[in-house]
């Protein structure tokens, strides 16, 4: 860009002197850059203080590989131990466990009868949650058995025509394209999205395009809260790894295709 000089031009003595230049107005100070939100603010924020920095400069396949390498090495707890941790420690608060789909609470100090409260595999067993993935706490949650049956192995999506619903807002039905989908309650949508992003990168499973678009939307709408951060840290103590999509929710936006 060409910058014009503001210096006064020296004129020959025979000419009348140039009128004095009008003083320049001081420019307004630039607005300070917004400070990054810390823990639970806007979804586009810095990772949790003290945790690894974001994977700077990486996106798409390179980022997926880096995330896989960082999170894939963890302890295989075994399914029975994983369920025991969920119902007696991880998701047991003051002696009660809460279903993530209905909000129903169950008082328990052991693994409950599967006909009452079950373990939800956010990534269904029938679609690849086997072996170590079956007991990976990052995608396991306590659920009412009837609600768990309603979800079955249907993909997640936004229900337009409701066939079943829970008091907390979970729905089973068809989406705008006529596909049968399951929609979790508003406060669990982001948790579902980040659990599936994690599962996809760690276990190399593809997320269908239509489902991925909805999950990315939920990742922004239902932001990481204190409870999700606390759970992520607790899981790290049990199995030795964290869900990086919880620590830095912007990671999902840097992957065009899971």
User: Strands of the biggest beta sheet: in what spatial order?
Assistant: 1-2-3
Number of helices: 7
| Category by helix and strand content | alpha+beta
Mean pLDDT: 86
Percent helix = 25-40%
Protein architecture, described:
- There is one protein chain.
- The strands form 3 sheets. The protein has a 3-stranded antiparallel beta sheet. Strands 6-7-8 form a 3-stranded antiparallel beta sheet, with no helix packed on it. Strands 4-5 form a two-stranded antiparallel sheet.
- By secondary structure, it is an alpha+beta fold.
- It has 7 helices and 8 strands; from the N terminus they run H-H-E-E-E-E-E-H-E-E-E-H-H-H-H.
- Strand 7 and strand 8 form a beta hairpin.
- The N terminus is likely disordered.
- The chain has one domain.
Quick structural overview:
The chain has 258 residues and is an alpha+beta fold.
What layout of secondary structure does this protein have?
Blueprint: H1 60-71, H2 79-90, E1 92-93, E2 96-98, E3 105-107, E4 117-121, E5 140-144, H3 145-151, E6 161-165, E7 171-174, E8 180-183, H4 189-203, H5 209-221, H6 226-239, H7 244-247
Helix pairs in contact: 1-4, 4-5
């Amino acid at each position: 860009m060409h910058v014009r000089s503001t210096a006064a031009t020296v004129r020959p003595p025979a000419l009348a002197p140039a009128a004095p230049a009008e003083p320049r107005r001081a420019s307004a100070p630039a607005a300070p850059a917004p400070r990054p939100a810390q823990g639970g603010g806007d979804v586009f924020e810095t990772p949790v203080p003290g945790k690894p920095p974001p994977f700077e400069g990486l996106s798409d396949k390179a980022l997926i590989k880096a995330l896989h390498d960082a999170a894939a090495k963890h302890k295989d707890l075994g399914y029975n131990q994983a369920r025991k941790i969920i119902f007696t420690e991880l998701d047991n608060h003051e002696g009660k466990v809460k279903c993530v789909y209905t909000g129903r609470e169950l008082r328990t100090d052991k693994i409950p009868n599967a006909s009452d409260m079950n373990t939800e595999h956010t990534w269904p067993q029938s679609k690849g949650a086997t072996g170590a993935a079956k007991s990976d706490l990052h995608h396991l949650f306590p659920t009412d058995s009837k609600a768990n049956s309603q979800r079955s192995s249907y993909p997640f999506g936004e229900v337009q025509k409701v066939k079943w619903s829970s008091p907390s807002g979970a729905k089973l039905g068809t989406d705008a394209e006529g596909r049968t989908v399951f929609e979790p309650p508003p406060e669990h949508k982001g948790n579902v999205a980040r659990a599936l992003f994690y599962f996809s990168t760690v276990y190399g499973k593809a997320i269908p395009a239509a489902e991925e678009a909805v999950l990315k939307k939920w990742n922004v709408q239902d932001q990481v809260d204190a409870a999700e951060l606390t759970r992520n840290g607790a899981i790290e103590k049990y199995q030795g790894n964290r869900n990086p999509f919880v620590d830095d929710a912007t990671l999902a936006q840097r992957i065009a295709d899971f």
